Amino acid sequence: MLILLFLAVPLTASALAVIFPALGCYLQLIVPAGLIPAAIYLYGYGTVAHSTGLYVGGVAIPFVADRFSAIMIATTAIVALGANWFAFQTTKQRFYPALTLMLIAGVNGALLTADLFNFFVFIEVMLLPSYGLLAMQGGRDRLRAGRVFVLVNLSASTLLLAGVAFLYGQVGTANLAALAGAGEVAPIPLAIIVIALCAKAGTFPVHTWLPRTYPVTSASVMGLFSGLHTKVAVYMLFRIWVVVFDMDARWNWLIITVCVASMLIGGFGGLGEHTLRRIIGYQMVNGMPFILIVFAFCTHDPQRALAAGIMYALHHMVTIGSLVLTSGAVEEAYGTDRLKKLSGLQEREPLTAFVFAAGAFSIVGFPPLSGIVGKVLVVFEAARAEQYFVIAIIIIASFGALLSMLRAYREAFWGAPMKNAPREARVGALIAPGAALIAVSFAMFFGAGFVFDWVQGAAASLLDVATYSEAVLGPDPIGVV
């Protein structure tokens, strides 16, 4: 029953936020703040499961938490807390807290379910408030981007549902534990599901929607989407790769091809953009392949390879969140994040300049920030797999990211002070959420050994398919492939 609290508490808080709007402003902070220690507590339990409806394993609706899902819940809660903290200062929309709390409930459900159909259901629970968050802070550009967001996600969700339906029709179950090792039994339905998840994660060649839509939303919404939407898809890709495909090395060439292309496009794509958040949008595209390419390195030491990917995912969530909220603070204070309208902010806003520079260095992979830890681990695994071409691409893509972020910093923070900036315009306390998230990145670097031990535990839990299956299916399962 402990697992269900991760769903019940945000949903109840969402309902309360609708009835009592003043209370909702605080619930949007209290709930994600409470989820962080709760997820850490859950991590200590190992693998636990709860089947609703009192049916036998294979028929019941399963929820399962292991160390991998627990560490993802904790990190998504950290990002959600930062985004909602920023919204607390900038957003006066009555239903914003209720929608964000419903989004958090959907994320937790997607991270805890052990059934692909119910994963689709929780994806829809996530999308419903997301559409509201896009629409409530209107404007022509945001509504136009909202249409693209709705079209892409509806298409991907339809594809996901079709894949799950075909899978169920072919093998008679959508239960992940029952599908263990079934990658060869139903390759076409599983391929459809993977394509849908890759579209939601924003990987090549279905990436173009992400840098077009996310930066047009408000900064708090972009912060939420960057840390929650894409990473839920990544989470399920990890789960399917390990449990269903059993890390089949025959797919390594395809994984490397897609990830290498995504790295290059994301690394250099930002050079053609003219706003801070659009540049950051391409760094989101750039980060996904660093997380997913470790699938191709699982032949030699799968635990270390998966741990490298998880470590990079945690780094990417907090760092992108910091960059988005820092850029949003600049936009709130000065009315724009267009590079040609900003200049000399380093003199006016030294703390903001420092936080943005730290986030940029972390994305590129400079110490003393979490980016260097994640990238070094991925490079080590590439070297272990003798994929030296991938290492060369990582260096080139990182150079592209460096050029993109240097251009953004040079245009916005260097140069002569802005002549048309209002005297009273200051970022002030708006920088606090972004600064807090970049502080987490610093902490991940200086506590890298401790964090990596946690990540290794998450990877080991992910690989322990036998324990996962026993927890989900029980001693007398039915419907196992």
TrEMBL record:
InterPro entries: CPA3_Na-H_Antiporter_D (IPR050586), NADH_UbQ_OxRdtase (IPR003918), ND/Mrp_TM (IPR001750). It is found in: Cell membrane; Membrane. GO terms for biological process: ATP synthesis coupled electron transport. It holds the Pfam family Proton_antipo_M. GO terms for molecular function: NADH dehydrogenase (ubiquinone) activity. GO terms for cellular component: plasma membrane. Its main location: membrane. Keywords: Cell membrane, Membrane, Transmembrane, Transmembrane helix. It comes from the Bacteria. The keyword Cell membrane applies. It is a multi-pass membrane protein. This is Monovalent cation/H+ antiporter subunit D family protein.
